């Protein structure tokens, strides 16, 4: 017979069910996730913003204010992690771009960023430069504008990112390894209440179509859904039950409420709902980017379970403030609360972070001699907003500048130029003085650089009449290899065309004309017929487009290529023609050839 239990042993046995019950009913561990996306090196406030259409505008953003918001959140909740859904760098203002985005990395080190999923713009300067931003060290060819830490109070040489770049779906062709880690795991809490959260980071699989081929040479970009789902067993084996996906792909709301915490239309027509719909049920939260939109959605996984899907606008104006409630026993996410918050600079009880403000100001001082030089004048705003036909005043100015830089026979003999709309950044050229010592109507180099920050080279090439028609047809979603987005090219004043979105691919573009010194030539008639398919046309584009960027693969077939100068240099030289005593540039002046693009189907907004 078994020996009778002692009193102590009996008490322990009796207590076991109670201990098990207590373990099962432990309160959840709360983990705060602060998320941003598409920061684009915007160290200073980009201006005012509002959370809803009916709300007042407030001064928003700025790295110093982001730092203040993060510090306040961490003080209230030690279990805080800060993440970015890509495009942290690239297409940056001069104060960061001039120094190869080292300022942005240094600022994010001080803010306390934990993870950045690579976006397409992380590849603007290629994988070697991106690795340098992660690992540190001076720029290999620019000894002037790199490693300026001694002047701004940061380590020399450049220290690199203290946070991790994540690239789950970016693999190197030679060995199949990911360029950066596929995910990072953070542990929160203590003792029996420790929980693990995995952050999978990746960019859109179409990155090669929207980045210069030289930037992604030797890399493969895998399917987003397959990448995440293949990682789930590995994470489960590591004891992780809470999974967050940081993906540089997104969507836009379809309504007009302009509420950063709404999800009008469920992001219908955007890529991200289909991606989420294919994800494993292990995923608990998806933080997105790329579209520069703000939304707060709940979208279904493959299992049908709806999870939060967020985006925080762009350039540091919004933070997604997310609380994960995690069961400390099972590790499962019990609930997720999300609020998109404007990074409001006017809060009386939350001053900007002084250290980050000082670092930003130091880089602005270093860039000031270049940034504040006046290069031209404008008579009114030349914005980068589009009308229903997709005409964009700022893009027309850029295209005119690129044509002027390459029109001479010895520089390419361009007959017209085409500019991709994504290469013309917000806000365009504004008449009101920027406050950097310039007067109203003056355009500084820094302002021009903000509009044209990519440093692309100009390429003049020959297209046949048929290739020109096919290129213009390739502007529209899913036409001739185009992605799901419309990318209506902006022509210089010599080229005009019409389009009808109601027609099938290959029949959308009509009435294409080119103005030459000897008169106007009809290239495509009103029925969409190319009149002289073999006629040669000299066209200037940037090297991004010339290499098939934005899915304009027809341009890769252009012949007799001649390389030109930098896009920003062409823009600066063109605007120099519009300085006193010459009249300022006026987008509405006669002779601008507006409208250059005409829409025939009655649509009310640029698709």
Description:
The protein is α/β, with parallel strands linked by helices. 24% of the residues lie in helices and 25% in strands. The chain has 15 helices and 29 strands. The strands form 8 sheets. The protein has a 6-stranded mixed sheet, with helices on one face. The longest helix is centred in the first third of the chain and has 18 residues, at 7-24. The protein is globular, with a radius of gyration of 27 Å.
What are its keywords?
607 residues; 6-stranded mixed sheet
Query: Level of helix content?
Result: 10-25%
User: What do the pLDDT scores average to?
Assistant: 93
Compute the separation of the termini in Å: 84 Å
The tally of beta strands, per DSSP, is 29
Shape label: globular
Which structural class fits the helix and strand makeup?
alpha/beta
Share of residues in strands: 25-35%
Number of helices: 15
Low-confidence runs: 1-14
Radius of gyration: 27 Å
Query: The biggest beta sheet, please?
Result: 6 strands, mixed
Q: Name the strands of the widest sheet in spatial order.
A: 6-5-4-1-15-16
SSE layout and pairing:
Blueprint lengths: L6 H18 L4 E8 L10 E3 L8 E3 L2 H14 L3 E5 L9 H4 L4 H10 L3 E3 L8 H10 L13 H4 L11 E3 L3 E3 L10 E6 L6 E9 L3 H4 L8 E3 L2 H14 L4 E7 L23 H6 L5 E6 L5 E7 L5 E7 L5 E9 L6 E10 L11 H18 L2 E4 L4 E2 L9 H14 L9 E4 L8 E2 L12 E3 H7 L5 E8 H9 L16 E2 L3 E5 L9 E8 L2 E6 L11 E7 H4 L12 E8 H9 L21 E3 L8
Parallel strand pairs: 1-4, 4-5, 5-6, 9-11, 11-12, 12-14, 19-27, 24-29
Antiparallel strand pairs: 1-15, 2-3, 7-10, 8-9, 13-14, 15-16, 17-21, 18-20, 19-23, 22-27, 22-28, 24-25, 25-26
Helix pairs in contact: 2-4, 2-10, 4-10, 11-15
């Amino acid at each position: 017979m078994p020996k009778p239990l002692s009193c102590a042993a009996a008490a322990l046995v009796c207590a076991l069910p109670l201990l098990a019950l207590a373990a099962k009913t432990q309160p959840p561990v709360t983990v705060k996730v602060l998320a941003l996306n598409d920061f684009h090196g915007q160290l200073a406030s980009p201006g005012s913003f509002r959370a809803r259409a009916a709300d007042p505008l407030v001064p928003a953003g700025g790295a110093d204010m982001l730092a203040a918001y993060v510090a306040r959140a961490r003080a209230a909740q030690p279990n805080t992690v800060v993440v970015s859904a890509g495009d942290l760098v690239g297409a940056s203002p001069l104060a960061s771009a001039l120094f190869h985005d080292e300022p942005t990395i240094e600022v994010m080190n001080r803010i306390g960023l934990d993870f950045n999923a690579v976006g397409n713009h992380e590849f603007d300067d290629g994988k070697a430069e991106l690795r340098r931003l992660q690992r540190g060290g001076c720029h290999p060819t620019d000894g002037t504008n790199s490693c300026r830490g001694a002047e701004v109070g940061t380590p020399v040489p450049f220290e690199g990112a203290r946070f991790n770049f994540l690239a789950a779906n970016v693999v190197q062709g030679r060995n199949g390894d990911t360029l950066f880690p596929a995910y990072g795991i953070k542990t929160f809490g203590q003792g029996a209440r420790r929980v693990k959260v995995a952050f999978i980071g990746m960019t859109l699989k179409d990155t090669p179509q929207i980045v210069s081929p030289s930037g992604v040479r030797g890399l493969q970009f895998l399917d987003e859904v397959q990448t995440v789902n293949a990682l789930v067993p590995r994470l489960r084996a590591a004891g992780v039950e809470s999974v967050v996906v940081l993906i540089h792909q997104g969507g836009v709301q379809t309504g007009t409420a302009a509420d950063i915490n709404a999800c009008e239309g469920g992001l219908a027509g955007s890529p991200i709902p289909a991606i989420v719909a294919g994800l494993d049920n292990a995923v608990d939260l998806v933080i997105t980017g790329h579209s520069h939109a703000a939304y707060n959605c709940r979208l279904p996984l493959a299992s049908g379970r709806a999870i939060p899907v967020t985006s925080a606008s762009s350039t540091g104006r919004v933070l997604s403030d997310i609380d994960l409630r995690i069961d400390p026993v099972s590790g499962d996410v019990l609930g997720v609360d999300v609020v998109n918050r404007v990074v409001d600079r006017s809060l009386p009880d939350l001053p900007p972070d002084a250290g980050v403000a000082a670092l930003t100001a130091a880089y602005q001082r270093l860039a000031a001699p270049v940034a504040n030089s006046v290069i031209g004048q404008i008579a009114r705003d030349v914005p980068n907003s589009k009308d229903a036909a997709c005409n964009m005043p700022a893009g027309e100015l850029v295209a005119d500048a690129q044509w002027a830089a390459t029109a001479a026979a010895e520089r390419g003999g361009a007959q017209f130029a085409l500019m991709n709309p994504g290469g013309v950044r917000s806000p365009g050229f504004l008449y009101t003085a920027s406050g950097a010592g310039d007067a109203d109507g003056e355009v500084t180099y820094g302002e021009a650089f903000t509009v044209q920050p990519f440093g692309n080279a100009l390429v003049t090439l020959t297209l046949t009449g048929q290739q020109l028609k096919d290129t213009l047809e390739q502007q529209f979603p899913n036409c001739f290899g185009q992605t799901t987005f419309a990318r209506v090219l902006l022509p210089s004043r010599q080229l005009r065309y019409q389009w009808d979105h109601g027609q099938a691919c290959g029949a959308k573009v009509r009435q294409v004309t080119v103005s030459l010194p000897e008169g106007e030539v009809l290239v495509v008639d009103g029925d969409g017929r190319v009149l002289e398919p073999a006629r040669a046309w000299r066209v200037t584009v940037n090297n991004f487009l010339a290499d098939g960027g934005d899915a304009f693969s027809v341009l890769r077939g252009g012949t007799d290529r001649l390389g030109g100068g930098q896009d920003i240099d062409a823009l600066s030289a063109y605007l120099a023609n519009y300085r006193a005593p010459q009249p300022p540039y006026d987008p509405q002046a006669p002779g601008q050839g507006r409208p250059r693009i005409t829409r025939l189907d009655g649509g009310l907004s640029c698709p």
